[in-house]
Structures are given as structure tokens and as C-alpha cells.
Amino acid sequence: MELPIREGKLSATGLKFGIVVARFNSFITDRLLAGALDALRRSGAADGDLEIVRVPGAWELPVAARALAQGRRHDALICLGAVIRGDTPHFDYVAGEAASGLARIATEFGVALGFGLLTTNTVEQAIDRAGAKAGNKGFDAAMTAIEMANLLRDLQPKS
Ligand code: INI
């Protein structure tokens, strides 16, 4: 007997995306954005269905994502930022608040949200995850957003 497994397909055709990008550490976040756009276009998204919102830093990602979620114009959100550890505890506050704020929005609004926030100890680790040795976290976040948008649509009660 075939098991009734539900999983989201990886097609972005006809889906609308809101992408929130932090400007802080833009030499990294620009690469994350390029990765996300590459994933969306290669999966069938049209440029006219993409809305890009820039915010000062990762700490501002949740409030902008919340505004987009409230607008309900998008099938999925993708949030991109890079928090790199310095010598002070600032890192923990920015990274922690950004991550928990985004998780709260995803669950509260039931919206597909690709979490593309890098939290690294060094600049080199961030570079590696923004298109160098360890893939591109922006690309991965966009693919997750596509899959979750399709899955959540499929899980909606049928009227
Ligand atoms: N914002 C980041 O996106 N990454 C960081 O590494 C970072 N550090 O290290 O300070 C950072 N700080 C700014 C923060 O996100 C807010 O924009 C700022 O505090 C103004 O509210």
C-alpha cells in the first residue's frame, strides 16, 4: 500500500515572493540575495512576482517580514542577513532576536518563510556560506520557501 506522504513541490511558477534583505554586511547579503534570485528564477518564478525589501540590519528583518506577512500578498517570504560575531555580546542579541522574531512570524501567520540568516564566528565562515566553499544559504532559503509555500497550499482545508 502506498503511504499518503505530503510534501511540497519545488516549482515556483506562479508564486509570489517577498524577499527581505539586511544591508549590514552587504558584501555577504548581496551574495545571499543573488543566490536566492538564482533559485527562484531557475524554479520558474517570474521577476514581476518578486518584491525585494531592504532593511538596515538583521535585527530589523522580523518587523519588515511581519509587515509583508500582514499584507498577505506573497506565497512565501525569504529573509536574508549575516550576523558575524565580534568581541562584544551584541552578536547574541542581534542574532537571537532576528531568529526568534522570524520563527514567531512564520508560525503566527502560517506563512512559508525561508530563513536565510547566517550567524558565524568569522567573516571567512560567512563567505563560505554565501556562495563559496559551503554553498549559498540564500539559495537554500529560497528553495525551502518554495517547498513550504507549495506544502502549505496543499495542506489548506479544501472547501
Ligand atoms: N546587523 C547585522 O545584520 N549583522 C551584524 O553582524 C550586526 N552587528 O554585528 O552588529 C548587525 N547589527 C545592526 C543591527 O542589526 C541593527 O540594524 C542596529 O542595531 C540598528 O537597530
Explain the overall architecture.
The protein is an alpha/beta fold and 159 residues long. The chain has one domain: Lumazine/riboflavin synthase (Rossmann fold). 46% of the residues lie in helices and 22% in strands. The protein has 5 helices and 6 strands, in the order βαβαβαβαββα. It has helices at residues 26-42, 61-71, 90-109, 123-128, 137-155; strands at 17-22, 50-55, 76-84, 112-120, 130-132, 135-136. The strands form 2 sheets. The chain has a 4-stranded parallel sheet, with helices on both faces. A two-stranded antiparallel ribbon has the order 5-6. α2 (61-71) packs parallel to α3 (90-109). The longest helix has 20 residues, at 90-109. The model has no long low-confidence stretch (mean pLDDT 96). Bound molecules: 5-nitro-6-ribityl-amino-2,4(1H,3H)-pyrimidinedione. 5-nitro-6-ribityl-amino-2,4(1H,3H)-pyrimidinedione (INI) binds at residues 22, 24-25, 56-60, 81-84, 86, 90-91, 94.
Label this structure with key terms.
two-stranded antiparallel sheet; Rossmann fold; alpha/beta; single chain; 5 helices; four-stranded parallel sheet; binds 5-nitro-6-ribityl-amino-2,4(1H,3H)-pyrimidinedione; 6 strands; 159 residues
